[in-house]
Amino acid sequence: MDPLSNSFDRMSVKDGDEKNRMVKVKIPATELPLKSNQRSLVESTVKPQKHNSSTVSYEARTLVPPNQKASSSKENSNEESLDTHKPAALIEQPIVKALHLGMFEIGKPLGKGKFGRVYLARERKHGFICALKVLNKNELRQARVEKQVRREVEIQSNLRHPNILKLYSHFHDSRRIFLVLEFAGQGELYKHLRKARRFPEPRAAKYIAQMAEALRYLHRKHVIHRDIKPENILLGIHGEIKISDFGWSVHAPSNRRKTYCGTLDYLPPEMICPKTDDDSYDEKVDLWALGVLTYEFLVGEAPFEDSPVLTTRRIARGDMTVPAFVSTEAKDLIHKVSDFRLFQPYAEQ
After folding, report:
1. What is the CATH number for 216?
2. According to the model, what pLDDT value does residue 303 have?
3. Any idea which of 59-63, 70-74, 231-235 has the lowest mean pLDDT?
4. Which residues partner with 223 through β-bridges?
């Protein structure tokens, strides 16, 4: 077995001879008919292979003890409880010994990334609707991002917040890695922003408030996302924010990192032109990106958008001009979130 497959087997634990258990999971009561053109898509793109129990594994973190209901777990946070008040259909999600591609009906493509594609999918036996992210192992090896993918799986599978996209499970075969993700019914926020050009302040305020709560949750768990931008934010079935794409995220209990990563337009001055000897930064890089995001929601474009050289210079100088049509209160929020000297995150209440 190759090193990449070995690493994914170590991240998962099989059930052995333990009997399957059922967990109540809230999902939209959505039907996913598999059309003929979608069947050809499945055959040509993600053709099911013969199941091999030695290479296909189930993410054990989603297991629930036999005598404990999912809703009463001690690890359920206040953030999770927000979901319990929303009307949704209850179905039983199987806790299976091993997942494989044949268990899913594959629907329309939802998106395409650098190393794979995302499809709408339905678990055949119980009708559980999800998104299936398919990654090509050879492409991951060639780009030398195996460690990045492993870290994404490890971090995202441990996160449970209504504004963070859930990673339910993962499995793999000889050529591909499959991530079973929550389905975000309204798609990419970026497309909504491009269509609207800019958001009205009440709508932007709702999104930013949800983003702030999700980031507070992440930072309390010592997770830094490091790539907050509209393309990495989805909208759920009720229009709620879902932070996704944890490829650049890191679990940093010391809260100090040195890696230069992310997307230039959303990077803070301390990453672009560090003024300290150790060149390190902390979770405030996500808060800077939140300020940039607030500006973009209200204005329709990122505040430092230019050529790479000019963008770097503008960020270093803090060259941000907020248009006059933005309210005084919104301007004040943008400047405070984007100024590390003024912002005191998560002070004790």
Report:
1. 1.10.510.10
2. 79
3. 59-63
4. 251
Q: What is the pLDDT of residue 310?
A: 73
Greatest mean pLDDT range, 19-28, 306-315, 322-331: 322-331
Which sequence positions are flagged as catalytic?
227
Structural domain harbouring 18: 9-181
Confidence of residue 336 (pLDDT cuts 50, 70, 90): confident
> Could you tell me if 16 and 130 lie in one domain?
yes
CA 53 to chain centre: 28
State the helix-helix crossing angle for 3-10 and 146-156, rounded to 10 degrees: 10
Last residue of a domain, one of 145, 166, 181: 181
Say which residue, 317 or 189, is predicted with more confidence.
189
Task: Judge whether 1 lies within some domain.
Answer: no
pLDDT per residue as tens digits for the range 303-316: 776 667 777 766 66
Contact of 18 with 66, CB cutoff 8 Å: no
Binding residues: 114, 133, 182-184, 231-232, 245
Same domain, 158 and 175: yes
The rounded distance, in Å, linking the Cα atoms of 33 and 327 is 46
Do the domain assignments include residue 346? no
Task: Quote the pTM value.
Answer: 0.66
Binding residues for ATP are 114, 133, 182-184, 231-232, 245
Q: Which residues contact 23 (CB under 8 A, 6 or more apart)?
A: 62, 64, 70, 92, 93, 95
111: buried, middle or exposed (CB in 10 Å: 19+, 13-18, 0-12)? middle
